[in-house]
Amino acid sequence: MQMTVMKQQGGRQALHRQAVAILLACSTLSAPAMALAQTLYPAPAEPQERNIYSPTNPVNNDGREGTWATAPAIGVTPLRTRPAMPSTSSNASAEPASAALSNTSGDPTAAATDTADPASLTTGAVTSGNSTPVNDPPYAEDLNQPYPDLLDPPADDPATEEAAALPGDPTGIRLGTLLLRPSIGQSINRETIRDGDTETKRNYLGTTIRGTLTSDWARHQLSVTGETVIERNLGGGEQPKPEGQIDANLRLDLADETIANISAGYDFEREDNSDPNAIGGASAQSAVQQFNGGLTLERDAGTLRGLAGLGISREIYGDAELQDGSSLDLGDRDHTLVDGRLRLGYELSPTLIPFVEVRGGRNFYDRTQDSAGYERSSWTYGGRGGVEFDLSEKLRGELGLGYERVEYDDSRLAALDGLTVDGRTVWSPQRGTELELALRTTLQDATAAGASGWVEYNLAATLTHQLRHNLVGRLTGGATERVFPQASDETTWISGAGLTWSLSRYLDLTGAVEYEYTDRTGTDTKTLRAGLGLTLRR
User: Fold this and answer.
1) Distances, alpha carbon 342 to alpha carbons 47, 113, 301, 372, 448, in Å
2) pLDDT tier at 524 (50, 70, 90 boundaries)?
3) H or E element that contains 260
4) In this structure, are residues 389 and 365 in contact, taking their beta carbons and an 8 Å threshold?
5) Phi and psi of 327, rounded to 5°?
6) Roughly how many angstroms between the first and final C-alpha of the chain, as a whole number?
7) Residue 185 Cα to chain centre, angstroms
8) What does the pLDDT look like over 366-381, one tens digit per residue?
């Protein structure tokens, strides 16, 4: 009898255990998160893929001049130029170009794909009144500057913004809802310039101070970037002046698929001796200040993508210092440019968006006539068509073809016009490897008597490969072709290579070498630069 009762109780306990097991299984299926929350080993976080173009903000939808803002270019030195027109776009990002291979990312593993914000190449032809040529380095050939993204992709693009710190991420300084990421780099460099039979050499120290400030808001976004470069020649002699820039962009996420972008920027640099508008034989070229501002509105309406932008840019030229100690007033080059653009795209598919764009602007010179008696104020008209494409993170970008024309107030100055080719493509054949190609066309104003200006075509390429988890290698190349209506054309070629070794999360060791060759009528110029430096970041 007792054995029978024990068997019956054991059977009831077995049935209870089965019922409890079934109940737990049903609970897990109905609320898996609750079940997972009870485990001792939480599920690992999904890796975050870096996509240069967000689905809601395809290439060039930030309202910039094409795929680039009017800020320093990235990738290779030939594409560095001071913007000559305002950004009719979401922002004017600020990332100077450099042959430097210093990575600003706090994560060494992101070095192969993480590129610092900004930089001045603008997709879409731009009338650049007396701006520094694109083959000029950002400041004074400091090879220890952060390696920027090719041709300045949009600043509201995740590729150019400092991502908000994840839990446990020690990089950056949290300031309420803002994240500050400063860095300071120190390098020693050598430069050799051979101009015909003349050769000059110099050794110099370069100090680069840089910072980014990014918001971490549920809606809207604020991004501010700033940089200054200080150089000191070893062995004495005249010291280069510090140069720098600061740019800010505020993105406002409005209702009904509408986005507004407000941008502002300031840039200070000295005109390069190789600029076609530079003063020959000057001991120090003009100091140039540029103020930029812009506003754009973007709206998606079904398969249509619309954009309207307005920008303003102001350039002020200081006096050039001559060999005899006197100075030359260049105030006749001061001007203000107001520019507007309209763009309409049609989404054939989420990966393919053809578009058309028209633009126009007015360039006002402060003085009615320049020192040679010419009225250089002008009207600019242009249009282009192209296509945006985004085939996942493997291939994305934009390509556009168009035409632009500049008509001067002075009837003695012939109109300047030309076909424009602009675009930017990013290809990642495998994780840790990225190839960026960029094209840009600009129309530049001249200062010589009787000359209108020239058409400038730029090509840049950057190949980045992560050799190890803390070692990144880069190869860069580029070309600049200047087409002068009244003179022989000029071509500049540039190539470079470098390594970035992340010694720790906060310290990088960088090394770079760069060769530049300018082919022009008369005297060719060959330049070789090499540098080694350290970058400390927080």
Assistant:
1) 38, 32, 15, 36, 33
2) confident
3) strand 258-270
4) no
5) -125, 155
6) 79
7) 19
8) 999 999 999 999 999 9
